[in-house]
Amino acid sequence: MTIQLLAFYAAAAVAIVGAMGVVLVPNVVVAGILLLATLLAIAGVFLVVFAEFLALTQVLIYGGAVTIVTLFAIMLTRTGELRVHLDNRQKPLAALVALGAFVLLSAAFLASEIPTRAAATSVATVGSAGGSTGFEYLGEALFTRWAVPFEIASLVLLVALIGAVILTRNGTPRDRA
Amino acid sequence: MGAHDLWLLSPQLAMAALACTALVVDLATGRSKLVLWLSLIGLVIPAALSIALWAANPADTLVFFGAASVDRFSLFFTLLFTGVAAAVIVSAEKYASRFQEQRGEFVGLILASTTGMMLLASANELITIYVSLELTALPVAALLAFLREDRSAEAGMKFLILSGVSSALLLYGLVFIFGFTGTTRLDEIFARIGDLQASGGFDSTVPFGSYGLLLGIALAISGFAFKLAAAPFQMWVPDAYEGGPTPVVAFLSVASKAAGFAVVLRILYSAFGSPELAVEWSALFAVLAVVTMTLGNLMALPQKNVKRLLGYSTISQAGFMLIGLAAVSANTSAGSLVAGPQSVVFYLAGYAFTNLAVFLGVIAITNRTNDNTIAGFAGMGRRAPVTALLLAIGLISLLGLPPTVGFMSKIFVFNAAVNSGLAWLALAGVLNSVISAYYYLRVIRAMYMEAPTSDERITLDPSLGVATGIAAFGAVLFGVAPWFLLRAAEIAVRSLSGVAGS
């Protein structure tokens, strides 16, 4: 238990320091790489609570795809102009709001008794339902209990695809004439 | 799980299939008129299935492990959305000539968004609610940018970003609710909260009994307030309304709002319907209602653009509907008061007829004049007598004068508020109605009292004329004889689990 707790604190510390770096570092490329560190640390937190599938997808999708796309986007845009807009006079205000949200959230966490038993059972069922591993359980759950949201998500992706194609398609030559 | 689930979900499945069919037919033939009329005829299928399900009234309404609940409440809204989608598609027949090549996709996206709304009205589980909400919002963001002008692109972009922000708030709230109750199903959340209350897990000095739940519900309501166009999440409305294509704006203001209220009603009553919690969120909505009404009305006063005016009008109308949400039976000792949610459902249906009459009338006129300012409507009483009359009926109903459905809606909402001990809220509503008279009547005055800018007559297209006529007729019919609609709203609300008396 203590090793688990230690691992959790280590991963959480990396995540928090990385997240603060993302906001505070003036260089956007460095910020992008710090974002990668944060996301990987969160994958570590998932591992600590035995959500190996979640950890794996976190590394693949957020650590891999999303960070790469972000870095590409940064490199393809003119970052020199962007830096001017990164900091403005609202920075103290933003810090104040962030601090307020932090205080509010931690107060809520500390003051309310989150029923650990209910949460614990649901995590346990994910880990070992009927002796199956997390992967098998996830696959099964996705196509039985969560079939409806899963199918709706496919519709959402279809719509996003169509919307993106329509909006980025330039007018046909006939339109321009 | 099996055939019964598919039968229950058949209206939603039919609508999704129709959306895909519209896209495929457009791709294969490229004839947008064909797509438009095919979709319009196809809308009969989900409508017929909804009516059949309403009549059958199956005892087991839960679908696929409780992901959705197809009760009469959801079927009421399913029918409403189908009707609104039909009207919007008809209104786009001529308007779509501005979309250049993408008319088929326009219909497909409207139908996809309608599918999302139908799912949203039935969703009984937090993840399904979130995914359906995204399916509702994403097509609208694309549709708002359809005109390929700067204003239209701005409207789409603002909607997309603010929709993302509100989704983030909503998701954060849902996480707290899940963390607190250990389940995502609304009926199980209700049971879990009941257990906690019985075992003394609630602190009566804290709003909602616990800070975790307080934070969860507050964040979730903030996320939904964006959908409802309620203050303080109304900033996107005027810009989106002014820049977006008018048929899309009509869809947004009628169907999107109804979907938002449907899911909020279901969450509040099915998950947080216990009297102790109801008192808390009732107070929250009472404040939101006053702020939303007043803000929308005051901002509407100086507007010169009709679409922007209607944007602020939609905000203030949302405020009136919120009064109905605040009217809960827990405020009184009566115990079995369904007037609050019933008045909201009635208001939404009446508002659909009313606002469609207004928007279709505006589309019929601006299709020819291409002028969205109030001054551009001068003398329309002479230039387009029929359209101006239908538009005037819609505006009078928005204002809430007899003999229109808007009058009845306000009567029922105010009545519900008074009966649940919120007389001050009803009074605020009446005062706001008076303020709103100024800007609604200004459009009517321009149409009938001011001299026309040209003598050219504006004829009404047959299909658009029929759709506008039906909407205006409904606005008057349910104002004179509201009983049928009122009864349907009551049946719908009573089928919602957690509403007193069910």
Description:
The complex is a heterodimer of chains A (177) and B (502). Chain A has helices at 2-24, 28-48, 52-76, 79-86, 91-111, 116-127, 134-143, 147-168, 173-176. Chain A has 177 residues and is mainly alpha-helical. Chain A has two domains: 1-79, Four Helix Bundle (Hemerythrin (Met), subunit A) (Up-down Bundle), CATH 1.20.120; 129-177. In chain A, helix 1 packs antiparallel against helix 2 (28-48) and helix 2 (28-48) runs antiparallel to helix 3. The N and C termini of chain A lie far apart (71 Å). The relative contact order of chain A is 0.06. Chain B has 502 residues and is mostly helical. Chain B has a domain at 274-496. Chain B has 21 helices and two strands. Chain B has a two-stranded antiparallel ribbon. In chain B, helix 2 runs antiparallel to helix 3 and helix 14 (306-326) runs antiparallel to helix 19 (423-449). The longest helix of chain B has 32 residues, at 150-181. The two termini of chain B are 25 Å apart. The A-B interface holds A 104-105, 107-109, 111-115, 117-119, 121-122, 144-149, 152-153, 155-156, 158-160, 162-164, 166-167, 171-172, 175 and B 1, 9, 16, 23, 63-65, 67-68, 100-102, 105, 108-109, 112-113, 115-116, 119, 125, 127-128, 130-132, 134-135, 138-139, 141-142, 145-146, 148, 156, 176, 179-183, 192, 196, 201, 206, 210-215.
